[in-house]
């Protein structure tokens, strides 16, 4: 059974691996696209990076943010769940905030409050 988010299951199969410097460069390019709001350019890069560098959580975090910006809140939450499941020990307070915002946009106030509490707790813990 494929445990990746549904949107990540159909990727090009002709590229098999990236050199670490290539991956870092592509991640930087995707970040610039995200910052400029060019989501249609960032999306395929992030999907490729997730496929070729599954051990690196950065691209999946960026994809979750992209989905949030595109108002695809369920997909953003799916990416967050994938991060939590496959990157045990990942402590990124921004993910709690993103999940809080997604739940709020979906009208799920209780879940939004819970993730916001996790966000604030993670910010105050040394």
Strand proportion: under 5%
How would the global form be characterised?
Answer: globular
Strand element count: 0
Describe the main β-sheet briefly: none
- Write down the domain tally: 2
Summarize the structure.
The protein has 126 residues and is mostly helical. The chain contains six helices and no strands. The termini are far apart.
How would you characterize the overall build of this protein?
The structure is a single chain. With 126 residues, the chain is mostly helical. The chain folds into two domains: 6-75, Serine Threonine Protein Phosphatase 5, Tetratricopeptide repeat; 91-126, no CATH class. The chain is 67% helix and 0% strand. The chain is built from six helices and no strands. Helix 1 packs antiparallel against helix 2, helix 1 packs parallel to helix 3 (58-69) and helix 3 runs antiparallel to helix 4 (73-86). The protein is globular and about 45 Å long. The model has no long low-confidence stretch (mean pLDDT 87).
